[in-house]
Amino acid sequence: MAVSAQASSSMEQTLFKKNLQELAQRLGTSFPVFQTRNEGFAHAPQFRSTVIIDGATFCSSHTFPHRKAAEQDVSKIALEGLYQKLYNEALLLISEVGGIERLY
């Protein structure tokens, strides 16, 4: 049974928050803390989320009609930021030991 492109995309989007929580656990950092606020009206909500993890704060640039979508969006932003930070730290470590050639 094939999974539709829309269902597949929806499944991928629901993993950002889970992946962020798992990354925090693997890194031994604090658990992500989400703050979500409604910037719309009761009859037409527009949610924006912020997440604090490992001393860094990430905020979604868009609003969403559902709280879950706002949390997934900010989780994706946080994952991208943390992966970039890890990448930069790895490059710094490599440069400190004299380049990749010295690691072999």
From TrEMBL:
GO MF, one annotated term: RNA binding
Keywords: Repeat, RNA-binding
Pfam families: dsrm
Domain DRBM stretches: 15-84
Listed Gene3D superfamilies: 3.30.160.20
Protein name: DRBM domain-containing protein
Native species: Amborella trichopoda
